[in-house]
Design goal:
Layout lengths: L2 E4 L7 H15 L5 E4 L4 H8 L5 E2 L8 H14 L3 E4 L2 H13 L4 E6 L9 H8 L5 E4 L2 H9 L7 E3 L18 H4 L7 E6 L8 H14 L3 E6 L5 H10 L6 E5 L5 H6 L2 E4 L8 H8 L4 E4 L14 E4 L4 H13 L1 H14 L5 H13 L2
Parallel strand pairs: 1-2, 1-4, 2-3, 4-5, 5-6, 6-7, 8-9, 8-11, 9-10, 11-12, 12-13
């Protein structure tokens, strides 16, 4: 069975990393598989730089029938049997390719916990019998799809995986605090998240403001970029966080940031799974997360971290203050996090996908 992985995104986020982890894992195990992406995309650049085999197809949009035809011809030429579709537009391409190659087996991955779009085509895409299996990266996403009318029997939950040893050799630069203007005795509370609406930076910033009023030695860091970054900088000013927060922008290497944090926070009100939580756990950080999406599938409250209601800055602030004043509790949760994260090793994720392919 030959598998072709397809991702239609131009940029690189968590979903693209997961697709690459799976592809590299299959190649490492000796599988003859392929990867298809858009020309000049971030995936194209990564695959070329790392000398990994790949294909590209130009596309004029989600419903480009000619792109679907070209994909079908590629599958015939290269004898691909299974298309693993890692994004919503990729699923559209796969469905069109199946019109020309009915023998193709389709596996679609759903990484977000938003309900399926209300337009008829979105509903059709995930409910059609043409899809053989849908992989969700959390039980919560599975439940959302079932509520949207997708048969539960068609869904398989495979949690996202991370390289749990990725940051093992990373060290905090000697001038880190000087670079980011962090006072010497401050307790650093950090987050790594795109500046997108569902990440709920207003919640994070308001909680930071409340916490700083009680403990002025707290310092907050926001690692990430996105359309809302300029606006959130203004919100931080309005909350009086000057001198207590750094916005780092996009950072290619986040390992030394995680190693510099004392506490990690993810304040989302929607979240598929949240692999930044797993990466924080992999360096032994205590994590505070919201009871949103798949976050509670990683964090066990008062065992390896704390869970708070979404959109509740008062509760989030309370938890930050609790961990800030109890270093032994931070150490306990961090130690337990190191054990928890072993269940989310990328190698296990690859194994589970391979088992899924065998059932097709």
């Amino acid at each position: 069975m030959r598998v072709l992985h397809i991702d239609s995104e131009k940029t690189w986020r968590g979903g693209q990393q997961q697709a690459i982890y799976l592809y590299e894992g299959m190649l490492k195990r000796g599988f003859d598989c392929g990867f298809l992406c858009l020309p000049k995309s971030s995936l194209h650049n990564y695959l070329a730089k790392n000398n990994l085999p790949f294909h590209t197809i130009s596309c004029k949009g989600e419903l480009d029938l000619y792109a679907g035809f070209k994909l079908a011809m590629l599958c015939r030429k290269k004898s691909y049997d299974v298309l693993h579709l890692h994004s919503s537009h990729s699923l559209s391409w796969g469905l069109m390719a199946k019109l020309f190659c009915p023998h193709l087996k389709l596996v679609a991955t759903r990484r977000v916990d938003f309900p399926i779009g209300k337009n008829p085509f979105s509903a059709f895409k995930y409910r059609t019998k043409a899809i053989n299996k849908i992989v969700t990266v959390s039980n919560n996403i599975r439940n959302v799809l079932v509520d949207c009318g997708v048969p539960e029997s068609k869904i398989t939950v495979i949690h996202s995986g991370i390289d749990i040893k990725k940051f093992a050799d990373k060290k905090v630069p000697e001038n880190f605090r000087e670079t980011w203007k962090i006072p010497e005795k401050s307790i650093v509370v950090g987050t790594v998240a795109a500046f997108a609406g569902h990440k709920d930076y207003p919640n994070f910033l308001q909680a930071a403001s409340l916490a700083v009023k009680e403990n002025p030695e707290l310092f907050f860091m926001a690692v990430g970029d996105g359309i809302l970054l300029p606006e959130m900088k203004k919100v931080a000013m309005e909350f009086g966080l000057q001198g207590h927060i750094s916005f780092t922008g996009f950072q290619k290497e986040i390992g030394h940031f995680l190693k510099a944090f004392d506490i990690f926070v993810l304040a989302s009100y929607l979240e598929g799974l949240g692999t930044s939580v797993l990466e924080a756990m992999s360096v032994g950080l205590p994590v505070i997360g919201t009871k949103a999406g798949g976050i509670s599938e990683m964090i066990s409250n008062e065992e390896n971290g704390l869970l708070v209601p979404p959109k509740n800055p008062q509760e989030l602030s309370h938890s930050i203050l609790k961990l800030a004043r109890e270093p032994r509790l931070r150490q306990k949760y961090g130690k337990n996090a190191l054990e928890t994260v072993k269940q989310f090793d990328k190698e296990l994720m690859v194994d589970k996908n391979l088992e899924l392919y065998k059932t097709l």
